[in-house]
Amino acid sequence: MRKKVSYREKMILKHEKNVENILKAGNYVKNKKLAEDYFDKREKTEICPDTIYLEASDIDGSVYRKMIPCGREICAVCGKRNSIAHRIRVARCREKVDSMSSLGYLVFTIPAELREIFKNTINLGDFSVFIKNLLKENGYKRGIMRWHWSGEYIGYAPHLNVLVDSGYLDKSEFEKKIGGIKKMVLEYFNKNYCDDKFYEKINLKYNYTSQKGKKIHKLKYIMRGTMINIGDDMYSVYFKLHNYRNTRYWGKWIKKTDKSRNKGILEELNEKLRWVYKGKFSAVYQNTLETFCYLGEGIFKYNSTSFLQKKLDKL
Fold it and tell me: How far apart are CA 37 and CA 211, in angstroms?
């Protein structure tokens, strides 16, 4: 019986043949290692099978391709940390986080007894709105929130991550603000979901940072996918939460005009280019990896002279 070859294996075999053909043309390739490293790097790039792509060109004649993966958290590619879907989510919120001089980070964990009830988009949505309104009442005028579906251990353990415009709190401020928020959350659970048992404790964490690198790290952490860590119950949870808008914002966000701020590639190109839908990325996968330069965040760039040839000509 003939062995089935996966799409990815076919692509790798094609890349190996391309490397061999390029290496045979001695006048074109001056450095064997550079060619091999170039294609090896592309082979290790994980592409979601449901990825579509958009194209755009600038006034210099350079052509750009933007990959848009499926973004589903149960996807074997998009559900991973540092996947293209993860980087795109981070890029969308980067400017918001940069506009905060100090970043406060809160985590609200759903009690273990209520987790089955919270496999429901209505309950999750109601709790998110309650937390947003509660934080606004306590002086947090803007923020970003996103659910994580599992924690350190395998299984469904939803907890709401919130980034707010906040900083250091001394002991009295901490007890007043965070203690008051804890009390209101306990009242919410006891009022809406308690039958006989009254909840006396809730797991609520707070920390802050004003360092730029740590702020971006917090953003990357909360934007990662967590559904693939649930385990055997992953698909049943996914279908129950299908089409639920996980990432939410509130407050007024003013765009920074500071030119010294480092913009992400995606943010910078979205400002100056007009993207046009072209179709499935699988149709141009081979051509893109061979002739385009990968810039990051799902963006490829093509010039009249190929990226590889330019690199080799400099040797």
Answer: 35
Residue type, 30: K
| 200-205 CB contacts, 8 Å cutoff, 24+ apart | 202/108, 202/109, 202/111, 203/107, 203/108, 203/109, 203/111, 203/159, 204/106, 204/107, 204/108, 204/109, 204/178, 205/105, 205/106, 205/107
Instruction: Decide if 261 contacts 98 (C-beta within 8 A).
Output: yes
**Cβ–Cβ under 8 Å, residues 278 and 58:** no
- Average pLDDT of the chain to the nearest whole number: 79
Which residues are paired to 104 by β-bridges? 164, 208
Q: How far is CA 163 from the centre of its chain?
A: 15
Q: How confident is the model at residue 314 (pLDDT cuts 50, 70, 90)?
A: low
Q: Where do the structural domains in the chain lie, given as residue ranges?
A: 7-70+274-313, 100-250
Can you give the pLDDT at residue 7?
58
CATH fold label, 100-250? Alpha-Beta Plaits (3.30.70)
Supply φ then ψ for residue 92, to 5 degrees. Answer: -65, -30
The structure tokens listed for 79 are 């559900």
pLDDT digits (tens, 9 = 90+) for 129-151: 999 999 999 889 999 999 999 88
Separation CA 253–CA 195 (nearest Å): 41
Cβ contact 280:108 at 8 Å: no
Least confident of 28-37, 43-52, 104-113, 245-254: 28-37
